Amino acid sequence: MKILAIRGRNLASLEGDFEIDFTAEPLLSAGIFAISGPTGAGKSTLLDAMCLALFARTPRTDQAKENNVKLQDVSNEQLSQSDPRFLLRRGTASGFAEVDFMALNGHCYRTRWSVARARDKENGRLQNPRLALYNLDKEEEEQGTRSDLQARIIELIGLTFDQFTRSVLLAQNDFSTFLKAEQGEKASLLEKLTGTELYSAISRQIFEKNARAKEAFDLIRSRIQGIELLTDEEENDLRTRFAGTEKELQRVEKAKAEQQALQEAVRSVEQQITVRQRQQKEATDKLAHATELLTVARREYEKGVEEQQQSEAHFKSLQQEILQARKLDIQLDTAIRDLSNSEQQLKDVTSRKKEAEKKYKAAALRQKQGQEEIARLTEWREHYKKKENIAEQLSALLLHLDAASAARSGVETASRSVETIRQAVITLNKQLAGLQQANASKQQALKQTEEKHRGLEEELKAVDIPALDKQIDKLRQEREQLLIEQARLEASGNIKELRARLQEGQPCPVCGSTHHPFVSNPEADTPPASIATLTLQLQELSGKKETCTANTRRLARLQQQLLQLHKELADSEAACKDIVGKQQLAASRQEREEVVVKEQSAKLAQSLSAADRLFGNNEWQKAWLQNPETFRSALTDFARQWHGNAEKLHQLERQESAQKAECESLASFLPSLEKQFEEAGLLHEKNRTAFSTLQAERKKLLNGRPADVVEQEYNRRMEELKERLKKLLATQTEQSGIADQTRGIADQIAKDLDEASADLFRRKAALDKWNADYQASSDGQPLEAILLRFTQEKTELGFRLRTQTENKAKVSGLQEELNVRRTESERWAKLNELAGSADGAKFRRIAQGYTLDILLNYANVQLRELTRRYRLERVPETLALQVIDRDMCDEVRTVHSLSGGESFLVSLALALGLSSLSSNRMRVESLFIDEGFGSLDAETLRVAMDALESLRTQGRKIGVISHVQEMTERIPVRVQVCRAGNGKSTLVVER
């Protein structure tokens, strides 16, 4: 993982956009660089921007553990003090943090954390932050929710936030975190850096395998315990009872079979009787039906013979009428042909006559229309005779009108420009007057501010602030001493009485002194008055100091106001000069436009005069001035119409003679067509009358039906009657045979019924005798009840015997599986005891113990360069660390006993060791150290710098934030954070 660039906008003291690009010189070739600047300028804000873009968190805001503490935002919203949105600079509406980095997969990505206020207003409510992730190589944005994108970023860089702050970013007061971290946290970080997650997975799988093996063993054991087995004695007793029951059941079943055989014989005979009775009924019904059908067939046959004779007689009477109808049919065919021919001839003559009349009317209409059009065109030309000159000289006239239109447009455009310039000059004059008035007000304000500034400077010069501070400190110390003395006196209850007994020259019973100042100077025994005096003096001096401090702040504000007023006056004077320049430019433009107005007016007058000569008057100008384009179009249309009408008039005059000859020719052809029409009408009427007469005579014969149809109907009727008589004879023969056969069957069925009734009586007597004998031998118990009892008993005993056999087989099979599961469970239990755990921590700690040993080897190499006094070791059987103190005969010390400077050196060595520790999956190529060097002496600082610079050959980039001047001067490449006033800072990359 490698950081390529850090960017941001409006974060804390860094206002506006800022960027640190590690892919451009001089940072590209620098192995180590310094981030320097005064306290509070925004050095750590750069690292905050990096953490915000990657994790939406920062080490500093995470240290605010009291999340229930709320702070007031500018929008009156209450936010938690750990909310990273507080990094947005006050007075700005939006900000962002952005980082370009090379991921573990070799691709370059850009992650961006941004926040904005509502409605893009500085006092708007803070909105939820937005997180975006771009693949720079593919030039596309990855999609997902904030949590999805955050998980994706962690996957790409291979580190969580806590792991990132242990190995890549050592924040302020956080150097010893990894050194003193818990064992699980160390293992997790080492796992990420070395790609040994497999050990955690193996540990969890061992735990899960052991749990599953134990569960499988317990399951089989519980299944065996849940199977119920009988004793051998109980099993033998069951088998004896089963054999006895089975023997009794066979005896009862044999008796049941005998009873069923007798019952079956009775039922068989009863069924035979029932079948014969049904057959007897069917034969009776069949005989009656056959007799009925025979009677109907004989009656229908007699009717058919009678109907056949009547049809033959009727057909003989129609023979003469059929012959006469055939003759009339031939005559009607001839009459129909004649009528059709005459009708077609009449239609042809009528069509020719109508066509000729239509042509004549059309020709006459065209002749009349042509004459009317000639008269109309002649009248129109006479009406516009005076304007013939316009149509003939249209080209010259249009040239003059186009020139006049162009000149008129030029005059109007130039006039509008002159008016616009005049209005602009008036506006500029007003603006200049307003600026001059504002300048006068600002000059007056500047003069007043300068006077106040000079007065405050003189007041401050008259006060010796250092002397005042010393005097305040002196009075405060004296007052504190008097207060202590007063407290001591009050603590001694009889001190005043003892002092009153002292005599000058006599020794004091307490100290032995012969001189007693409190006796010779009674005022020394009254400290409260002195304390009050000192308190008043201290209050006066403090008030004077506060006044000086307030005047100093006022002086700074006045200085700022002076700077602002000077800037505003300079801007105002520049604006005045700009307006004067604009006025001069407007005056010159106005003169040019007025010259254009005069030139175009002269051209307009010249073109209008030339057009007046062609028109013959100037009355046309009114219409032209209203709409020149419409007027020009009207002239063009009139000329086009004049020339078109002249040509059309000549064409109509040529067509008039031809139309007259055509009308005369058509009129001469109409009389002959009228005569042909009359002759064809007379012939058609004659043929129609003849056809009507024949048709009326034919309708009287055979009711108008054709003779062939009448003959066909007769022949078809006779054939139907013959076929019907034939079928009726066959039916009589068939039904007569059926009746004879059915009578014989009925007689045989009656004999069979008598024999079956006698057999049924004998069989019922045998069954009754068997039932009576069995009842006597079984004490009156029903056979079915005995059979059911023995059947149920046999089923129950058989089920218990089968269950016993199956349970024996199950237990035998499960016992073998139980032995296999026991062996497997014991094997996994031993392995789980060694390396298995639910969270994977046990085997991970074992494996990471070796990884930590490798890390300590790297760290001790770095630590020997920093200080030869200490060596890091792993506490045996743990991931905890201990320090070997060489100067104290290799005494083992806890890492918590190191001083601040010593902890920093050891933590720095660990951080450098973590940077060196890598695996096939991950390599940490960036390291940022925030502060911590101030606790080192000069020699140790030099050694630390040598160690950091040695990493340049390993391709790593180290960023150091420090206030130590010697350190920042030694590093050639620096990112300088410069204050710009009002809490603002800017970034400058220096070499």
From TrEMBL:
Coiled-coil features, chain-numbered ranges: 235-272, 325-373, 432-492
InterPro entries reported in the protein's UniProt record: P-loop_NTPase (IPR027417)
Keyword Coiled coil appears in the UniProt entry: yes
Range of residues in the leader sequence: none
One Pfam family per UniProt: SbcC_Walker_B
Coiled coil in keyword set: yes
Keyword list, A-Z: Coiled coil
SUPFAM superfamilies: P-loop containing nucleoside triphosphate hydrolases
PANTHER family, A to Z: ABC TRANSPORTER ABCH.3
Name this protein carries in UniProt: AAA family ATPase
Organism: Parabacteroides hominis
